[in-house]
Amino acid sequence: MSGQTHGSSEELTALKSNVDVVVVGAGFAGLYMLYRLRGLGLQVQVIEAGSDVGGTWFWNRYPGARCDVESMEYSYSFSEELQQEWDWTERYATQPEILRYINHVADRFDLRRDVQFNTRVRSAIFNEATGRWTVTTDKGQIVNTQFCVMATGCLSAAKPPEIKGRDLFKGSTYHTGLWPHEPVDFTGKTVGVIGTGSSGVQTIPEVAKQAHQLFVFQRTPTFSLPAGNRPLKEAEVQEIKQNYIDLRKRAKVSPTGVASYPLPTLSALEATPQERDLAYEFRWQAGGTAYTRTYKDIMLLAAANETAADFARRKIQSRVKNPELAEKLTPRDIYIGTKRLCLDTQYFETFNKDNVSLVDIRSTPIQEITEAGVKTSVAEYKLDALIYATGFDAITGAILNIDIRTSSGLTLAEKWRAGPLTYLGLMTAGFPNLFMVTGPGSPSVLSNVIVSIEQHVEWISDCIQHLTANSCAQIEATQAAENNWVAHVNQLASATLFLNANSWYMGANVPGKPRVFMPYVGGVGRYREECTAIANNGYTGFDIKK
Ligand code: NA7
């Protein structure tokens, strides 16, 4: 079956002024959080900036937008009825299909009535005397709450590029992460795309189908693999559904939150070149980001990584007809996988089209945006439309866009000035009763994020239930536990190649942002075990007050 996309939800709710929990965000995290908290009999107010549910899938409507985790796994597991009744149609779901799914979930569990849409949270202030939070919205409304949950998403603060003259351009401007709701027609237009990360890689082939002329402004070439997308067959869907409970269990204990990914045991360096080529070819044909899991040391050792990168480079070169152009599109000075690996459908082949041109802005940098288009050091490209596929202020951006502070003057922005500090990516010392879903220091963006969201939401709701059952009003991460966790997260990351890349994992794409590797690399299964053990031991590392 397919869900009906709900119309405007604006009229459905009036903001409650006094609740047990405020949840910020009505994406996958916020909606499940609401569902669980309601199940505990709590009063909940969800506040969402968009005009409807969906979070990242509400905003990222650009042509070609698609998930890079397979649809049968990129979906909620908490309801057996839900996972049995919903039918995914493609191996990798499109944005519209995911949005239909999340709308279906909102309708099925009657979630919208506790969501205030079209509203941004401006500040959240903890009153140390009363032990409660005051949450203020951009409409000047105030909500008093015991707990705050930031379900604000890791990729929700769109980042325009810091290029001179950005507002001068007279044509149409778009950001992939803030795409209009109405379809955009590029037929007959001269279009520019700045950015060749996942969003650029997905949208470029689609825009090229329409545009008269497409200029792709590339700063860094991208490692991208064919997604191998295809329609799902009824028989395979039924087989997965029959074994769904087992599949979900395996996902939860796996390193990446994806049950179908391999658990490599061999070293790339112990295999012969022929064995490696066979193994990489197998993964290449299979499609998907599991390519970097072909061997256990690809993300750990430079020499092992180079074998995977070399194979991927050869593949890129075979996809682009013009050797000079192929070379420009081939990443040379980055370890494969240290920037998020992209999955594409005909990305490199698109550059074989006559109406598509690559502008290498590393050798000929953009100097400014003009009224007419984009001016590089050697030419001005006159455009009708300009698409920024320039990414996000990832992981911390949306949280820090809210003024979070305590009555004694501690601000989160100040505390995190040199990088985010958390205990388990769930809480941060000094800010009692403030939870984060997939916060920095948790597997988040290195995992199937739905699996990580469910784990966090369940941990948080169990924690609130524990507090309530024991007549406790307050929980806060201790400074010592936080220090140890941050050291542990950094130690794990420093054993990998991730620290070498100018990636959004490192905050390197935002000028002035501290350069810290933000996610937890130890894996979903291991992380879950740690979180569960901490809760089972009476919330070790947390101060709990009556
Ligand atoms: P990404 O992966 O951060 O990619 C952004 C792209 O934009 C990347 O190619 C950047 O080049 C480029 N960029 C960013 N700022 C500029 C400026 N100022 N000038 C030129 N080029 C620029 O964002 P996406 O939206 O594609 O994907 C984010 C995640 O969303 C993705 O990994 C999936 O998980 C879903 P750079 O590489 O920095 O040289």
Estimate the strand proportion.
15-25%
Q: What CATH architecture of the domain at 18-157 and 394-545 would you give?
A: 3-Layer(bba) Sandwich
Structural class: alpha/beta
Roughly how many Å is the radius of gyration? 23 Å
Query: How far is the first residue's CA from the last residue's CA?
Result: 48 Å
Number of strands: 20
Task: Describe the secondary structure blueprint for this structure.
Layout: E1 18-24, H1 28-39, E2 44-47, H2 56-59, H3 80-85, H4 95-108, E3 115-116, E4 121-127, E5 132-137, E6 142-150, E7 172-175, E8 190-194, H5 198-210, E9 213-218, E10 224-226, H6 234-242, H7 244-253, H8 273-286, H9 302-319, H10 323-328, E11 342-344, H11 347-350, E12 356-360, E13 366-369, E14 373-376, E15 380-382, E16 385-388, H12 397-400, E17 403-406, H13 412-415, E18 434-436, H14 449-469, E19 474-477, H15 479-494, H16 524-536, E20 542-545
Parallel strand pairs: 1-2, 1-6, 2-3, 4-17, 6-18, 7-16, 8-9, 8-16, 9-12, 10-11
Antiparallel strand pairs: 4-5, 5-6, 13-14, 14-15, 19-20
Helix pairs in contact: 1-14, 14-16
Bound molecules: ligand NA7.
The site of ligand NA7 has 22 residues, from α5.
Would you kindly provide a written description of the structure presented here, covering whatever features stand out?
- This protein has 546 residues and is α/β, with parallel strands linked by helices.
- The protein has helices spanning 28-39, 56-59, 80-85, 95-108, 198-210, 234-242, 244-253, 273-286, 302-319, 323-328, 347-350, 397-400, 412-415, 449-469, 479-494, 524-536, and strands spanning 18-24, 44-47, 115-116, 121-127, 132-137, 142-150, 172-175, 190-194, 213-218, 224-226, 342-344, 356-360, 366-369, 373-376, 380-382, 385-388, 403-406, 434-436, 474-477, 542-545.
- It has 16 helices and 20 strands.
- Helices cover 31% and strands 17% of the residues.
- The radius of gyration is 23 Å and the shape is globular.
- The chain has a domain at 18-157 and 394-545: FAD/NAD(P)-binding domain (3-Layer(bba) Sandwich), CATH 3.50.50.
- Helix 5 (198-210) links the parallel strand 8 and strand 9 (213-218).
- Strands 1, 2, 3, 4, 5, 6, 17 and 18 form an eight-stranded mixed beta sheet that branches. A five-stranded parallel beta sheet has the order 7-16-8-9-12, covered by helices on one side.
- The structure holds ligand NA7.
- Residues 155, 161-163, 176, 194-200, 219-220, 340, 361, 389-392, 504, 509 line the site of ligand NA7.
